[in-house]
Design brief:
The protein is an alpha+beta fold. The chain has helices spanning 16-25, 60-77, 99-118, and strands spanning 27-30, 34-40, 47-51, 84-90. The termini are far apart.
Amino acid sequence: MPGNARLLRTRRLRRRGEFTDTMKSGSRSRDACFSIYACRSALPFAQLGVTVSRRVSPKAVSRNRIKRQIRESFRRHQDLLSGVRVVVAAQPAASANDNRQLQMSLSKHWERIAKQQRQ
């Protein structure tokens, strides 16, 4: 993957505290596939945290597909979300949808979050 197409390590949430702070203090956007929590960050770029539990799908292949779709969508929309920390929690309905439907759902969430954070 080319260097500019990757989701950099600095753009990911990796510590449990970062996830819980975002989920507690942030605004929420939700549909059948995803619950997305977002809050303002002191950093000039967007950061992403992803949770896809076994409750979503018992198959690792399915969970990994969902995570790839989340990361790819976030990578394409990260300029829209600059200065925002985001945690995406997949819901069980996400495993039943195809990649196109997941991308459409996530695009709507990113636009909604960007609008909320600008206010």
